[in-house]
Design a protein that fits this description.
The model has no long low-confidence stretch (mean pLDDT about 95). Helix content is about 50%, strand content about 10%. By secondary structure, the chain is mainly alpha-helical. Bound molecules: nicotinamide-adenine-dinucleotide and zinc ion. Zinc ion binds next to helix 10. The site of nicotinamide-adenine-dinucleotide has 29 residues, from helix 1, helix 4, helix 5 and helix 6.
């Protein structure tokens, strides 16, 4: 667990474990997702006499799932692990799909493995202590799941009351489960991301550029918020290039703008944003690669757009 989940989440489940556990707490946050932290986890497992039959339980957000999954997948050539994801992003995204890893130097998720937990246990009541911005970050990935695979689910999500004071955590569980099933189905059909799994990158080509652009500034934004802005712009590209109907474009962008507001950019920011996209490692041979939509629920991957088309897409988004 990390410092926050030790305080806020462990008390909710402590009784389930009885006396037979040893626990280890890492610092919270992305900056702890490194090899030195992993080394401490391995030292702990070694000191406590963990063997190949030991089980590692990861209680926390995406950082814990990624790092704990990686720690378990290498210790003694791999021990079993369970995820108990405690952020919405971890519940609908990081705990599903088998990607584990840590950051290395300036590179995100540079060292890692594909390894699957033997179980993922999800309880949306953990989210009661999560701050609203982290909740919205996970919600963006749920919206993405709906947009790439299930029109009816999009309109169901749109009905949700996201107001922190009125959020129905129990009512969120079936929606989280639906999102998990969508991601799981995509991942199982293409575990190593050679084809269909790329549809999960919808919103992410432009989203990653937003995320990097604001990183380290006073306007820093969460991953999910960046993806929400990215999806809005990629919806405009979808309308121009892949036949997304205008009424669907309007429904989706209206809703994203309602929940997340608009990205704080002007036309002056377009060029540096596009420069960031050309450095995105997911692009082969300097073309800018996208997953777009033919319609809500009908994705297409391996699409490309020119810098002029992206420039126009950003412009349409700003003027909408
Ligand atoms: N493996 C994958 O497929 C995948 C997918 C998406 C994201 N990720 C990774 O996930 C990470 C981001 O995940 P995240 O946003 O969950 O980050 P996180 O794990 O850092 O959690 C965010 C913050 O919330 C705190 N927290 C966690 N649960 C809480 C709770 N119930 N109540 C109060 N506070 C709580 C954490 O301590 C942390 O400060 C990134 O490192 C990203 O690379 C991985
Ligand atoms: Zn994402």
């Amino acid at each position: 667990m990390d410092q926050n989940t030790q305080k806020k989440c462990l008390p909710k489940i402590k009784d389930a474990f009885g006396q037979s556990i040893c626990s280890y707490t890492v610092q919270s946050g992305e900056q702890a997702k490194t090899l030195p932290t992993l080394e401490k986890v391995w030292e702990f497992l070694n000191r406590e006499g963990a063997d190949r039959k030991s089980l590692l339980v990861n209680l926390g957000g995406g950082v814990l799932c990624d790092m704990g999954g990686f720690a378990a997948s290498c210790f003694k050539r791999g021990i079993d692990f369970i995820h108990i994801p405690t952020t919405l992003l971890a519940q609908v995204d990081a705990s599903v799909g088998g990607k584990t890893g840590v950051n290395f130097k300036i590179f995100k998720n540079e060292i890692g493995t594909f390894s699957f937990p033997i179980k993922v246990i999800i309880d949306t009541h953990f989210l009661e202590t999560l701050d609203h911005e982290h909740l919205l970050s996970g919600f963006a990935e749920m919206l993405k799941h709906a947009l790439i695979s299930d029109q009816e689910y999009f309109y169901r999500l749109r009905e949700m009351n996201l107001n922190p004071a009125q959020l129905d955590f129990a009512g969120l569980l079936p929606l989280v489960e639906h999102s998990v099933r969508i991601k799981e189905k995509v991942v199982l059909s293409d575990p190593l991301e050679t084809g269909l799994r790329k549809i999960l990158n919808f919103g992410h080509t432009i989203g990653h550029a937003f995320e990097s652009y604001f990183m380290g500034t006073t306007d820093e934004i969460s991953h999910g918020r960046a993806v929400a802005y990215g999806m809005a712009v990629e919806l405009f590209l979808s309308e121009k290039k892949s036949g997304l109907p205008v009424d669907k474009l309007k429904d989706a962008v209206d809703y994203i703008n309602k929940v997340y507001g608009k990205a704080r950019i002007t036309t002056k920011d377009f060029e540096p944003l596009i420069n960031l996209m050309t450095h995105d490692k997911k692009n082969e041979s300097a073309k800018i690669n996208f997953s777009l939509l033919n319609d809500i629920g009908l994705p297409v991957f391996d699409q490309t757009a020119t810098t002029e088309e992206i420039f126009d897409g950003l412009g349409l988004y700003l003027r909408f």
